[in-house]
Amino acid sequence: MPAPLIRHPFMNGPALSECNAAAMVQAMLAFELALAEVQERHGAMPAGTHRAMREPLESHAFDLAAMAEGVASGGNAAIPFVKQGRAALPEPLKRYWHMGATSQDVVDSALMLLLKPRLAALDALLLRCRAAAVELMNTHDQTVMVGRTLMQQALPITFGVKVAHWAIGLEQSRRRLAQVELPVQFGGAVGVHSGWGELGLDFMDGLAGRLELAAPVLPWHTDRQPIHALATALDAVAGAAEKAALDVALLTQTEIGEVSEPGGEGMGASSSMPHKRNPVRCALIRAACRQIHGHATVIMNAAAQPLERGLGEWHAEWSPLVDSALLLEGALEQLARLLEGLEVHAEAMQRNLAITGGAIMAEPVSRLLVPVVGQDAAKRISAEAAETARIERRAYATVLTEHTEITGRIERAELERVADPALYLGSAQRQVRRAIDWLMAS
């Protein structure tokens, strides 16, 4: 697979280097050595055993290629890993290696260890996005723009309140992700710590503390709620990130031009059209998020697993789960840069407010006219004046004052006030302040 060309560009480079096959092996090794340490502490093996195991194993060069081949015959990476690890130990120590554990204990716990730093990185990126959004909100809380529904001009809003909705979505999903627990997995062959009696739960709790993972109530071999919670939380962040990127991309269209992505050498360049400045960051964000949505579907469909070990469902989780975290890290890196360098064109927003000749203010104008001319006439007059203003490129309020049915019946100043988009923003400015207070309260 040409991953460096079609997969990795949507991910975060440093994260990719920290989340590879070698890192997975190190995470599995951390689990096994922690297990031995906990078991030794509880008297299940002679004192000093875990240290004696640690030295040859930490310096051992595991054969990743052979391990990968072993997955095809054993069904998971733990089986060839355990085999290689045991072969690297002196004969007297072999019996204590992987004692009481099963493959799923190793793989699930290793994945949790692998993903833990990724969640920390995601949180940091979300906080970076939040800071950039708050700065935009403060700067543009009074920057008036068109509000659009069903892709059409509706009524005026501010750019600050638009960014506030992006920020709220991102922060809500950040808090949800922060609450997700990464539990250790340890239950043995069928999840009841066979052969260890009540000590099995002590081993499990001790492992959780040693590896700094959450201690589950019970082993969760076919209770995939922890994986489901993590995958859907990642997907929620992806949804919030994609929403912001979609809005920005739509606002960058040549005919709208209300914002531009940050510039830079080669950013947004076309292979054939020199004049273009494509919203590439938005494209990368949305492409990554679309893949995360697909991965979440795979994991949700694997939530119900048979009996005491999944038959394909468990196996189907691994790649989508890790890829989702890596894709999301890449998307949020792009989003942070996008928000930090976003170019906002207030003059284009003003131009687009006037593009309909004032029709965007027909609704409040109609409300003003109702007591004077009645409901039906008010709606007709406000629409007629808007069309005239658009065709003749004149101010909406001026055309209204000249309309024969209302001439002399309403003061020009009142018509100008009602036709001013900046005076019809509802609670937009207060919403921005309220959003900032909520965002910064955590």
TrEMBL record:
InterPro entries: AdenyloSucc_lyase_C, Fumarase/histidase_N, Fumarate_lyase_fam, Fumarate_lyase_N, L-Aspartase-like. Signal peptide: none annotated. Residues 357-436 form the Adenylosuccinate lyase C-terminal domain. Keywords: Lyase. One of its GO terms (molecular function) is lyase activity. SUPFAM superfamilies: L-aspartase-like. The keyword Lyase applies. Pfam families: Lyase_1. Belongs to the class-II fumarase/aspartase family. This is Adenylosuccinate lyase family protein. It comes from Billgrantia pellis.
